[in-house]
Amino acid sequence: MQRQAFDTLEFAQLKAVLLQRIRTPLGIELAEGLPVLTDADEITRELRRTSEGVTYLREGTALDLHDLPDPRPALGKLGIADVNLEPVEILNLFRLISVALGLRETFRYDERTSGADLYPLIRAITDRIPNLRAVYQRLRTRISPTGEIEDFASPELREVRFQLARTRETLQRRLESILKKADESHALRDDFVTIRNERFVIPIRNDNRGAVQGVVHGMSSSGQTAFVEPLETIELNNDLVRLREIEQTEIIKVLFQITEELRAERAALETMADAVAHVDLIAAKARLALDQNAVEPKINQSGRLFLKDARHPLLEAHLKTQRLPIVPLSLDLEQERRVMVISGPNAGGKTVVLKTVGLLALMAQAGLHVPAAEADLPVFNQTHADIGDHQSIAANLSTFTAHLQNIREISEALEAPALILLDEVGTGTDPEEGSALGVAMVDYFRARGAHVIVTTHYSGLKIYA
Question: Residue 415, Cβ neighbours under 10 Å: how many?
């Protein structure tokens, strides 16, 4: 039932707005699963974290999270023994370490130099980040920013690359000498050395191919050029191929060494990823609060539901695109006055009140600031909504029957404290019967301890109120 209420109140659309302000793949995963909490202490903590994020962003400093690739595939591989990471995956983990250590330093507090501790709750997250600076500095020099294994990653790799360079230079000189002789006999097609089948060759005119003795490694698309490996360079080419194979073996060894060192720090890396994700989510919540001119709501245990100049965030954003103002709303319910009946003309905004109150209650319990001048909200174990036309031809349900079924499911699942939002309660049947039924429903939910906000045109329900 609550899932239906979340859909009706467009909580998923609000999360989509939040997701636009996330900077990392790790934060996206947290935001997509954003929970609506029911523990007052947890809600207060999350709201305070959002407030700390607002304070930080108001200082005009952006968090360095923009270019963090997703480290989760690499972390998953570290859980599989004897599986090497690819260079790009290693670089992704290096970036994770760099970003996490940056956050650790950003929110580090030193009472001797830092003055007031403005971010204790965010710092509680970043202080958990392990200090892998020594590992980072030791490993990052072995791979270039483009993912190439550096020559000095191991003594063996440095030596084989030195031999490769020397052999390539000798081969180049030998081929240039052959090119010069072939040029004198006008056998050349082009005066340059190229590579075919990973072997150095020279382009010879096909009609004069015998001018250079060697192995043909292919023809040009026109058939006028043969790519010939001269006999006198075959041994050098063989040496080059052998050295390249040794180089690849050494590269694999280096990747294995780096992977094993990172595998030993897998738990620390996962802690880093978790911390970065949470800070990213806090920053996104703070950006949303600033964009919506929202405030941190108070959370109470007294049952008071107070909103001053509250605005529906999705409606306000839509109206802004049309350069139209939004009309804010204010209301105040208490534990002993938990029912509000709203009446008025069609298109007067009654349903907007229901959706605004419902969505802002969910936002607060998800740790989001709410767009209002002031807010003081209770903690609801459940939020239920019967808004809109639930008629279903496929299920053979009329509008009235669909509403009744929804109300029945709400009553069966109800666990106070709860917020129940009913739009045009009792509609779809005879007005007198619908009015009596509406009064019975509202009074039943009131007696069960729920906060109830209901819209109606029925005079009986107005008199009841």
Answer: 12
